[in-house]
Design brief:
The complex is a heterodimer of chains A (about 300) and B (about 325).
Chain A: H1 2-36, H2 43-59, H3 65-88, H4 96-118, E1 123-124, E2 133-136, E3 139-142, H5 143-165, H6 167-177, H7 179-184, H8 189-215, E4 217-218, H9 224-237, H10 242-261, H11 268-282
Antiparallel strand pairs in A: 1-4, 2-3
Chain B: H1 2-28, H2 34-59, H3 67-83, H4 89-111, H5 116-135, E1 146-147, H6 154-173, H7 175-185, H8 187-192, H9 197-220, E2 225-226, H10 233-246, H11 251-267, H12 272-289
The chains are: A mainly alpha (about 300), B mainly alpha (about 325).
Chain lengths: ~300, ~325
Amino acid sequence: MGSVTEQVLQQIVNGLSLGSIYALVALGYTMVYGIIKLINFAHGDVMMVGAYAGWFATTTLHMSFIPALLIAMTVSAILGVLIERIAYKPLRNATRIASLITAIGVSFFLEYGGMLVVSPQMRTYPPVFPDTIYNVGGIIIKYGDIVMIVTSIVLMVLLHGIVKYTKIGKAMRAVSFDTEAALLMGINVNNTISATFAIGSALAAAAGVLMGVYFNTINPLMGIIPGLKAFVAAVLGGIGIIPGAMVGGFFLGLTESFVSGLGASTWRDAVAFLILILVLIVKPSGLFGKNIREKV
Amino acid sequence: MGKRINRQSVLTLVGVLLVYAIVQGSIFMDILPPFVALTLIQVCIFIILATSLNLINGITGQFSIGHAGFMAIGAYVAAIVVVKFHGPLLLALIAGAAAAAVAGFLIGLPTLRLKGDYLAIATLGFGEIVRIVFLNTSYVGGASGFSVPKTITWTWAFWLTVLSIIIIRNFIKSTHGRACISIRENEIAADVMGINTTKYKIMAFTIGAFFAGLAGGIYANYLYIIQPLTFSFLKSFDILVMVVLGGLGSLTGSVLGAVVMTVVSAALSGWPEWRLVITAVLLIVMMIFRPKGLLGTKEFSLSFLGKKGDKNASSKD
């Protein structure tokens, strides 16, 4: 009995660490979707670029964790803004399908362009943290677990503050609510959209660095699966809704670690996509979403 | 009117026979390099995949990006029929296609209520689930793959491709096809006009899945081995690029897209990263400057001398 409880608690710890990555990436998906109704398929790859920037900062520049994290976030933020300006902005009034295809194109460009630049081989992240392992009543908590959960919570609180209490946050909410009305009220929509991409990409970069540190290796295709799953998390919580993305991320992380804990880790990805399809069928607006009727 | 169609049909038939005869002749005389032969069969497979995806994405306007999933079902079922039950090739291909069609029907029934992005993501999830299921099934070899004897010849691949195009073309030109086009143009209006939109969406989805399964069967019986990794999201993306490049809604566009992309891929096969980078850039530039694809919704025809344009051609916003 005791061991079962231990097992469950252990999986909760693993699930929360994994979930914090999904949540950070899902936030970017959800913010971008909320503001320009685009599934930014390249988001997972922005995370990959962030992970590489962090890797470069820690290995070549011998930085410690926090400066490396900030550098990775800055690099990705710039990349996110560039992607938006070059690839998505010309298509803002095009069909949804055209923008979606462009996003897939950007994603592949980053993945395979990345392969050309940094070579397809795996890179090992240097041990940024001590290998300390805390044993709390039989549950193993790694130092990395704590850093991951704490970092993501700090970033989420920061994001909440920005969205809720700053001028740019207010502009973001206004644009996402009604772009045209926001424009008429004198809000610079282009800058607001750029800011959204910058913030979302910075969060993805943080997730990328955390992932690199936690799993030790990075490669140019590392963003695909976490990216897709973070999208699942965003849909799960209700796409476009910021708290929904956080809850969705943690929910997905926990589900996955329980599936792995039951000894079916090869089915992990299938379960995530199954959840996605079920959510889409049963409640397409997500757990936190409101049903909106389409007007003719 | 009748005369024009007649001449066009004759010209097309002559063209098709000519292509077949030239390739078959060079195979017969043993002057076709194996690499070229492989590429030609792949062109056939991708033409079937692209035209069938176009039926769903271009004609009916339902955005599906899980086509590799149906291809995988067709490939594995056809392979099982051949390897485990020693069935004849034709039966295997039909079984594979039928299995994919059933899967298309079952997945289409609930998900086709979804629109646009959501449908895209649901089909993507479906494709990945199919791949993971085969990956975890030791009966079909799991990750290491499933060996299948090579029985597909150029004759099989070519005539099956021609047959697929004819069936899909006739479907599009039929009442059902027009109903599908009306859904693409305006689903609500189509609904109001009394078209059973759900029925036609599922019909298009099932037929599209059927031919994807057929292409999968051809693939399995040609390439000696099938692996779950072959049917990843990347494959769906490849097919999508062909359809978009040729023009969503144009069958001849899909054929053109499939031929161009397969030949370009084959030419760049030594530099896989470059191939994908170029594809990606091509796609982005295409979407920004010519989102309709090379042919838009128009059809390419050999009868230049006749009246240009297509009665179904219309702009899509």
